[in-house]
Write a structure and sequence with these properties.
The chain has one domain. It has seven helices and no strands. The protein has helices spanning 7-33, 40-51, 56-76, 80-98, 111-126, 133-136, 144-176. It is elongated, with a radius of gyration of 21 Å. It starts with 6 loop residues before the first helix and ends in an 18-residue tail after the last helix.
């Protein structure tokens, strides 16, 4: 079997990469600029805070840049391992927010961000293909070690963000429902009883 990619396979790969990049740019532009019915930074920041992402405004900016910036780079096929990784991380974190609603997007589930993230990760693994700026520049931003590093960063970064979000939500819940001391007993679990 030949390892040479056929022209039709290269065209299909480029079409899918550009379409994925376009979807990510649109999705990020909703957060950054309020385009396409989005909330812009202010509205996205409020949503990020409610979802447990702190600090909310930098989280909104990073999510928007992660989507839009990675989308542009993927569409161009430039620095594809890094672009795919950033998009996969952003979408993986989004999928974790939707996970309690199940799989299907019709129920608010993680289907949509998961598919976008997996698609982006596939370009981290496989590269942009022949019809790309990576190919035109001699793969200077797409080396095998870059693919490995970018792929390894995906679960680590998602795990870190999910952990931080859960910590923030737990702190919010504790602040909303403080433990009231029982009469004659200290609220401090270490303090001696009176």
């Amino acid at each position: 079997m030949s390892t040479q990619t056929s022209p039709s396979a290269s065209a299909a790969q480029a079409l899918f990469r550009v379409a994925l990049g376009g979807v990510l740019v649109a999705h990020g532009s909703q957060k950054l600029f309020g385009w396409f019915g989005g909330s812009g930074i202010e509205g996205t920041s409020k949503g990020m805070h409610a979802m447990g992402f702190r600090p909310a405004t930098p989280s909104a900016v990073l999510a928007g840049l992660g989507e839009a910036g990675a989308g542009v780079a993927l569409a161009l096929g430039l620095a594809t391992p890094a672009a795919g990784s950033v998009a996969a991380i952003t979408m993986g974190v989004a999928a974790s927010v939707h996970a309690p609603n199940g799989f299907f997007a019709t129920n608010g589930g993680f289907e949509y961000p998961a598919v976008l993230g997996l698609a982006a990760a596939s370009f981290t693994i496989g590269g942009a293909g022949r019809a790309s700026l990576d190919a035109a520049t001699g793969q200077i931003f797409d080396r095998p070690w870059m693919r490995v590093a970018a792929l390894a960063a995906i679960p680590a970064a998602i795990g870190g963000q999910v952990y931080r979000r859960r910590q923030a939500l737990a702190a919010d819940a504790a602040a909303a429902h403080p433990i009231a001391p029982v009469e004659g007993k200290s609220a401090d679990p270490i303090a001696p009883e009176s």
